[in-house]
Each structure stands twice: as structure tokens, then as C-alpha cells.
Design a protein that fits this description.
8-stranded parallel sheet; two-stranded antiparallel sheet; TIM Barrel; single chain
Length: 301
């Protein structure tokens, strides 16, 4: 068994896979939708839900701020739209309460330093570093200063960029997630062998953040040794928004969790044994075991 780290009451890097349901911005700025998604994740057996937190004035490029955007709430500037999608402190207070009620961990990917300061009020068990933020050293250093574990997605990153992020955060308190940042990601670009590559180079636990359609690649990632599986979830892939199409609906999430939890059961311990369920079959179908053959030979030869 490799290195493990604690995220809340969960051990990451051991025999069990940490399953994260990423709500992200699929709440569409509505805490009621967020709570429905939390309920789905909890009922399906996920370990945690993840949100996003941004300061739009910082994260939206200046040349994008005033561009018009058609939304379900009417036409507005892109900056106004991004602000509309952010949950308030009151919303996150309710999310914190509701997750505790449901017995599920929650945390967020923070895209800027003020967002870390905001989420830190809720004492999250860890922080997520989005693939887009892996080269933001100011942000990485702020997350490191919290003393909380960091889960780092590595989509659209070179190995050198990943190494720089690991050197900044340190290997003792991070989890690396292999990732392809396309939405949805193509099967031929998933490159799940990277899970082993990251595991060989770094001593921290390695997992997978999937943006593909369907559940098979994420289950395969767990078979290949991913200690964390993260998938976007939605109430309905047809909902308005950029991430819904590459997200799992409740039925798909339920299958994913079921199949990942079965892996440890199916894998077993590697010790050859005859199981009780085989005793009668063995008695019925085996003509003789080795000792019987030897006795028969001794008596007749």
C-alpha cells in the first residue's frame, strides 16, 4: 500500500476509492438545485460533493466581461452571467448544514485567492485545484497555507507543469487526478495509462477526474488503481449550461458507484482457496483427488 492522506473522515490511497460527485456550477446559481444534487450524491453512496467558487471580477478576462450572453434569465453581459451563477455566503451556509445532515463531505475548487478565503470560513476537509489553475502559483501557495490537503486535476497540463505544482504544494498532502479537460472527452484521448505514469513518478495518491460520457472509463480507471474518482453530476443532461452534457444523471451515478464498490469485492486477496460454494461441485465432478489416485495405484499395481 502506498502513501495515504486523510480527507475528512476518509482515507485516500488505501483499499477504498473516494468517489466525488462534482456539482460544480450545475446548480445554475440555485441553492435548491444544489441541495437536490447533494441528495442524489448521498443516496448513490458518494463520499463527497464538490462545488466551484470564483470571484468573477478576477477570473473573467477583461475582453470577455462586456460580451453579451443569452441566458435563461435574459441577455446580460458575460460578467453579469458569471456573477449570477455564483452561490452566496448564505447559500454555502445552507449547503454546509445540508451536507452535514446528509453525512457527506463537501469542498470546492477555488479559482482565486479571495475564493479560498471565502471557502475557508466553512473549514472544508480539502481544496480542489482545477486543471485551469495548476500554474497559478499564488493560488497554490494560498491553498498550501491553509494546511488542508489539495486535490489537483492535471488536464491540459505538461509533465513539467505538473511537477512544478507538486513541488509548490509538496507531495505529502496532495492527490493528483489524471484528467482530460475536453467536455465531453473523447475515448481515444482519455489515456488512462497516465494513472500508472503519475503513480510511478510521484509518491502521493493518484486518481481520475472524468469528463467522458458513460461510466465505463471511470470504472476502468478505478480498476487501474485510481484512488479517487470524480465525475460531474446533473439532474438532467438537457438542462441549460456548459457542463450538463458531460455529466452523469442520477441513474448513471448510481451505476458508477455500484461498479466501483464492487471492484474490491471482485478482486479478492489473491490467495488461492476452495470456497464453500465449490465443495459440493468438487465432490460431484472430481473423479478422484491425488491421494485417491495414489492409493488406487498402490493397491493394484
Amino acid at each position: 500500500m502506498g502513501k495515504t492522506i486523510n480527507i475528512g473522515n476518509k482515507v485516500v490511497g488505501g483499499d477504498d476509492v473516494l468517489i466525488i460527485a462534482e456539482i460544480g456550477i450545475n446548480h445554475n446559481g440555485d441553492v435548491k438545485i444544489a441541495k437536490k444534487l447533494i441528495s442524489v450524491a448521498a443516496e448513490c453512496g458518494c463520499d463527497a460533493v464538490k462545488f466551484q467558487k470564483k470571484t468573477p471580477n478576477i477570473c473573467v478576462p477583461d475582453d470577455q466581461k462586456n460580451k453579451p450572453k443569452d441566458t435563461p434569465w435574459g441577455e446580460m453581459t458575460y460578467l453579469e452571467y458569471k456573477k449570477r451563477m455564483e452561490l452566496s455566503e448564505e447559500d454555502f451556509t445552507e449547503i454546509d448544514r445540508y451536507c452535514k445532515e446528509k453525512g457527506i463531505l463537501w469542498f470546492a475548487s477555488c479559482w482565486d485567492v479571495p475564493s479560498v478565503d471565502f471557502i475557508e470560513k466553512f473549514n472544508p476537509p480539502c481544496y480542489k485545484v482545477a486543471s485551469a489553475s495548476i500554474t497559478d502559483m499564488e493560488l497554490l501557495n494560498r491553498i498550501k497555507a491553509t494546511g488542508k490537503p489539495a486535490i489537483v486535476s492535471t488536464g491540459m497540463s505538461t509533465m513539467e507543469e505538473i511537477r512544478n505544482a507538486v513541488n509548490t504544494l509538496g507531495e505529502d498532502n496532495i492527490v493528483l487526478l489524471h484528467c482530460n479537460s475536453s467536455y465531453p472527452a473523447k475515448n481515444e484521448e482519455l489515456n488512462l495509462a497516465m494513472i500508472e505514469t503519475l503513480g510511478k513518478e510521484f509518491s502521493c495518491p493518484v486518481g481520475y477526474s472524468g469528463h467522458e460520457t458513460g461510466v465505463f472509463p471511470s470504472v476502468m480507471a478505478a480498476v487501474l488503481g485510481a484512488k479517487v474518482i470524480e465525475r460531474h453530476i446533473t439532474l438532467d443532461r438537457a438542462m441549460w449550461g456548459t457542463d450538463h452534457a458531460a455529466s452523469l444523471e442520477p441513474q448513471g451515478l448510481s451505476r458508477l458507484v455500484r461498479d466501483i464498490r464492487l471492484i474490491k469485492v471482485i478482486k479478492g486477496d489473491g490467495i488461492k482457496k476452495v470456497y464453500p460454494s465449490e465443495f459440493e461441485i468438487k465432490k460431484k465432478l472430481r473423479r478422484a483427488d491425488g491421494n485417491e489416485k495414489a492409493d488406487s495405484c498402490d493397491n493394484t499395481c
